[in-house]
Amino acid sequence: MSISLEEIYNHTKERYQLKLLTGTNGLTREFTWVQLCEDIGNCDFFRGHELVISTGLASMQENWLQDFITELIRHRVCGLILNTGKYIRPADIPPEIIDFCKEKHFPLFTMPWKIHIADIMQDYCSRLLHAQEQESRLENLLAGLLSGGSQGEKCQQELTARGLLNLPFQLVVFPLTAAQLSHDQEQLIRLTCKRRLNHFTRFYSILCHARQILLVFGQPPADIHNCIIELSQDLPADCLSGHIGLSQLYDNLADLPTALKEARAAAATARLQQTALLSFSELGPYRLLFMSEQHSLLQQMHREKLQPLIDYDAAHQSQLLPTLRAYLFHNSSLQETARLTFTHRNTIGYRLRKIKELLGCDLDDSEDRFSYMLAFYIADYLQLTAEDCP
């Protein structure tokens, strides 16, 4: 939920007789405020993402418009409305300026002099404040859902009243590298997300929650994977772990806590596998483990199956545990296991005989092989959950 130049332009272009001259590709940008500016020297006061209105009062100076727009772009202003008719006419805007703004994806509008600047500024500021209030309230409601309990129930009731509870959504988790973002870092991430997400969907929410950035995609796009990858390339790399998790698609926001658990599991597995993005549906057997509440049982199963090898390797500086893993996960192939472990085939044969002796198992039996493969999946899961603990 946000407000972009495209949205406000489409809603108000007839009322204020706005004409977009160029910069269509920049219309998805968020704008945070509307500002009247005539003096290029005042550009240093911009914080970024303002929509600027100018009457062209300084148009008697040579190259003023080129210099003015260059400074606006340098200060990350999102667009310019020229109030034409008194100090500058539409015909005074040269093709070179149009081409420059197009190249920079900088929206340039004209508005006739008869439109009162005070009216459009008051209207736009009011719309911005309303959008910010709605956005903040939605974020609070979603955070309340994640809290659960009576607070979660109250948030469900309000979302139902707003007609938002039965909304298809997916959740994306971007784990953070720092315990807490600075205000400037959080604002940069929010504005970057909004600029990119406005290309893909009109309903989304951004939350900072427990060392994570959460993106809730309402009515997620079909190419959500590409959207996430493109977005991740725009975000500041020093703040994020680089491993992203995506939940399954749900049709009710009441399932947000489950979606968060899924997305966190996918992000953790992406870290294990050293890949940029994984969805929960791609996790295979890990899905059962991450959704299990029987943590102590999983620890017991892991110990029962693999502890003898762990103890033997520690006492003899041997490699029985990684050998068994490579053997099981590569179709019980001696040749492939030898290649992966950089070990002679005969040595692999000796290790497997020792493994069978220590474990008392039959690796030719499918049930035994499955139980030990499951134990290795559990080992990965226990490692991931231990790393996620503060």
Automatic annotation (TrEMBL):
InterPro entries to which the protein is assigned, alphabetical:
CdaR-like_regulators, CdaR_GGDEF, PucR_C-HTH_dom, PucR_C-HTH_sf, PucR_dom
A Pfam family recorded for this sequence: GGDEF_2
CdaR GGDEF-like domain location is 165-268
- The PucR C-terminal helix-turn-helix domain is annotated at 320-377
State the source organism's domain of life: Bacteria
- Tell me the ranges covered by the Purine catabolism PurC-like domain, including all copies: 18-127
Instruction: Report the sequence similarity comment from the record.
Output: Belongs to the CdaR family.
Its name, as the record gives it, is PucR C-terminal helix-turn-helix domain-containing protein
Report the source organism: Selenomonas ruminantium
